[in-house]
Structure formats: C-alpha cells, structure tokens
Amino acid sequence: MLTQSLQDALNKQVKNEFYSANVYLAMVAWFEDQGLPGFATWMRAQYQEELTHGLKIFDFILDRDGKVVIEAIDAPPLEWASPLAAFEAAYENEKAVSKMIDDLYDLADKENDHATRVMLQWFITEQVEEEASTKLAVDKLKLAGSDSGALFVLDQQFGSRQAGEDG
Ligand code: FEO
Questions:
Q1: What is this structure's pTM?
Q2: Range of the domain at 38
Q3: Could you tell me if 167 and 131 are in contact, meaning their C-beta atoms sit under 8 angstroms apart?
Q4: Cα 46 to ligand 1 centroid, rounded to whole Å
Q5: Is residue 167's pLDDT more than 70?
C-alpha cells in the first residue's frame, strides 16, 4: 500500500511525464513547420517515450492498489528561436525530470517503500540516457552552428531514430 504522500507524488510525476510528452509533441510540430522532418521524427520518438514513462507510473499506482488522479497539464511552449534552442530546452527539461525522479526516490526511501524504490531505479537509469541523448544533440547542433549544409545532414541523421531507441 502506498502512503498518501507517495501516492500524491507519483500522480504528480504522471502529470510531469505527460507534460514532457506534450513539450516534445509541440517540438514535432515546430520542426515540421521549419522544414526539418528528421528532427521532428526524433522528437516524435521522444514524445512516445514520455507517454510510456507516464503510463509506467500510472500502472504502478494501480498495481499498488493506489488511486490514480489525472491532473490538469499546463500548455507547452509552441515556438523556439532555433533548432539549437529547442534541443537546449529539451536538455533542460530532462535535467529537471532527473531531479524530480531523485526527489521521488528520496521520498520512497523516507517512507521505506521498497517497491517504489525498485520501480524508480529504472527511471534513474533512463534519465542518464535521456540527459545524454539530448546533450549530444545540443553539442552536434552547436558544432553545426549556422552552416545550413551541416544542419541538413544532422536532420537526416536524426530522422533515423526509431520509437523506443535513444537518440
Ligand atoms: Fe520521462 Fe524524458 O523523462
């Protein structure tokens, strides 16, 4: 049985994961609008990952006989100044999510909830990947700079990402 405080925090994280999903979905639309379908494909895979993250916690709450509460989700931003700015925002978002997961783990530890700690270990490992893949994208876009040829090549490269793959 989940404690009330842990159940509340897990429900909040379901919302946070779906917010992240919507941020990346907004980026899909923005990249498509910019004529950069490869980056849009990458972000679509990221969007799908966030949905699985949210559902993983959703299912965990149900499995623990907890009460799922679907909370209102803030609207995401819709525009970014450049592809680099979009990926920098994604990287910042992932760092923020890592902190949320760490805080959740600390709470599970405090509540002595072993099952929640084990479930969150998957997320802790996943966040290492999420930060690394968005940081790598930022680094590549910085290298490309204002070279439109390099951006074109990167767009093609990013377009090969499949759903379920790290970028
Ligand atoms: Fe679910 Fe990208 O954090």
A1: 0.95
A2: 4-158
A3: no
A4: 8
A5: no
